[in-house]
Amino acid sequence: MAHRRIIESEEFSDRIDTSLWPIVLTDNFSSELKEIYEKRKLAVDLYLKNLSNNEILELTGIHRNHLSKFIKRCLDFDENGVIWGYRALIPHKHLKSYKSTNTPDTDPHSHTPPSMNGAFQFLLACYPELKTLIENLYFKQSSRSASDPIIRGKEIHRKFIKKCTELGIKSPTQYPFNTVELARRSLYEYLKKLNYAHFEKASERYGEDAALIANTTGQGSVIKKIIRPFEQVQFDGHRLDVIIALVLYTPEGDEIVTIIDRIWLLAIIDVGSKAVLGHYVSYNKEYTPSDVLKCIRNAIIPWKPKKFTIPNLKYPEQGGFPSGVIEKAQWALWNELLYDQAKANLAEIVKDRLKQTVRCTVNSGRIKSPVKRSHIERLFGLIEQNGIQRLPTTTGSHPEDPKRRNPEKQAVKYRVSAEHIEELVEVLFAEYNGTRSEGINFSTPLEAMLNRLKRYEVNQMPEEQRSNLNFLSLKATREVQGSIKKGRRPYIQYENARYTNDILARSSGLIGKKLGLLVNIDDLRVIEAFLPDGSELGKLRASGRWGITPHSLQVRREIYALKRQKLLDFTASDDPIEIYQKYLESTLKTRKTNRNKYLELTRKNSESEGNDNIEIIHEETLQEKVNEEIIELAQVKRRTEEVSKVEVPKPNKIRRTIVF
Q1: Tens digits of per-residue pLDDT, 590-626?
Q2: Which residue ranges have biased composition labelled Basic and acidic residues (predicted)?
Q3: At what angle do helices 592-608 and 576-586 cross, to 10 degrees?
Q4: CA angle 417-423-426, nearest 5°?
């Protein structure tokens, strides 16, 4: 029987399982429509159960011709590739738009107007140039205009008619010129369909924020719910909506007050418990790799409460940070870190430290895509609302924000300093960790972490690695310089400064050899050096004042950049850091970016004051290692020369190269 071939065909063999078909909710149908739908559905079900056409006709009243049509509709796919199923049986439902097969031109001798159904689609099919023009104009794929970033439908229609004329469609009897509005309504309807069919492109018409959300949400698999602490953390940086005062004093004792309006807050939040693990405040124009690493370090090293300078400011009784109040959270390492592809995050030193020290995977996500890191973005919003935007020096969330009340003047009046902001942020985060949240069953982040750490294990940094933890170390190699003939003792050159120590200075046998270096980019006064076999040589100190005043790699590079521009000049006996600081002071009124640099520099000096972290070198032990290394290198050289049939130097000549 012919009708059996519909479901017996291999084409439909994987479509006849009705349990996979989309269902229809008939609660809102009228009694008449509901009866029609249920008869159609029953007829299709009986057909798939191999009942005869006569039996189906007797039970449902549906003839075989209509039944065949219903079956084919059910087995077809919609525009999203989903089988129509029972939806195709809904009364008056159109599965496909009407397509005209000819242009509805007007016959001047006829008194009957032509049918316009499907005329617009047929016109676009005949003239693809019109379709391209409409889509390019609507989505602004070319000829973007700053004065008219979103083109209106009225303008698209005007250019559409002009294009029709250029294509030779001019006669008043031709479509669209034979319609009252020149196909305006059909064009507007087509633009609506473009919106539905190209969601991401259509969102771009309404700004970057809408486009960002459209492109980063609602697609792909559902993100799994994370409840285990330290399974995943989120990192990001946020520019605070606040202005602070920078107070300086001239040699004569006069006070100078200027302002700084660019302050970055960096934070790491645990996704499972929603607890803030650590944070850092940066005063750089853009936060740097060093700032990122300091934030990571603060999230791992056990937290200790600060002493506040703001009167009556104190920590909440139930707040704090996990590494300071939960034993299992001390030195805890996370499995995955989510962060934005900002410039500082992409630095190799950040990737290296995450890989070598934290041993976590990194998911950088899309640039400027906060949706995937909603927890950290919400956290920054709470910090602004509950603290920063309540200050008299707040800039508000936008220039017209009513909270903004001459913040520059208020900063000078109230002397809101960098220390005040750091202390306030510290308390706000500690308070957040002790505040109940609906998202974690109305417990606090600290309570959620404590309870879940009783059920889950967490990776902790081994004890032997904790004492030598340095997130800010950069690996490098340098060749030992020096000359016995010229009386120049061994040293290495790094970033325009010489480094040596007593051991290296007495080890002329290392001249020409390469040493491995661990460079703390936050303090270049000393560099840790290693012999070619990996044994420790000790800490090398920079010569002159470079080895006394604390400074970072970034500061040294800026100093030499200014020197090349002849804006700075100093001798070997001068302190370059002091001269650089005076230069910044002299430009604070004219260059806003130098204010941030000055504040970072003075903070560095304050942190390092009375805290010289250069360890005492155990000379005898190190010298013994160096001597052994030199002897081994000499023996290798001797064996090489023997192979080359070069006269082997006498042992006493080799021994003379070793200086004790």
Answers
A1: 787 788 888 888 877 766 654 554 444 444 445 555 5
A2: 398-410
A3: 140
A4: 145
Average pLDDT score over residue span 296-302: 94
**DSSP state letters, 329-343:** GTTEE-SEEEE---T
Phi, psi (deg, nearest 5) at residue 109: -95, -5
Taking the domains of the chain in order of start, what are their residue ranges? 2-89, 119-216, 233-466, 473-608, 622-656
How many Cβ atoms are within 10 Å of 249's Cβ, its own excluded? 10
What CA dihedral angle connects 325, 329, 332 and 333, to 10 degrees? -110
Confidence class for position 208, pLDDT limits 50, 70, 90:
low
H-type helices in 415-530, by residue range? 418-433, 445-453, 463-466, 502-505
Query: Is the dihedral angle over the CA atoms 73, 74, 75, 79 positive or is it negative?
Result: positive
The model's pLDDT over 106-153, given as tens digits with 9 standing for 90+, comes to 555 444 455 566 788 888 888 999 989 988 888 875 444 444 556 788
Place of tokens 């070997």: 572
Q: What is the pLDDT of residue 626?
A: 56
272: Cβ contacts below 8 Å, ≥ 6 apart: 226, 227, 228, 229, 230, 231, 232, 448, 449, 452
Helices 119-126 and 128-139: angle between axes, nearest 10 degrees: 100
Contact at 8 Å (CB) between 47 and 73? no
390: its two tokens: 């309540």
551-589 pLDDT, tens digit each: 989 899 999 999 998 998 888 888 999 898 888 888 877
Residue 218 tokens read as 């609602």
- Compute the distance between CA of residue 202 and CA of residue 581 in angstroms, rounded to an integer: 52
CB 555 within 8 A of CB 544: no
H or E stretch at 300: helix 289-300
Q: Which helix (H) or strand (E) holds 374?
A: helix 374-386
Contacts of 104 (CB under 8 A, 6+ apart): 114, 115, 116, 119, 175, 178
CATH code for the part of the protein at 233-466: 3.30.420.10
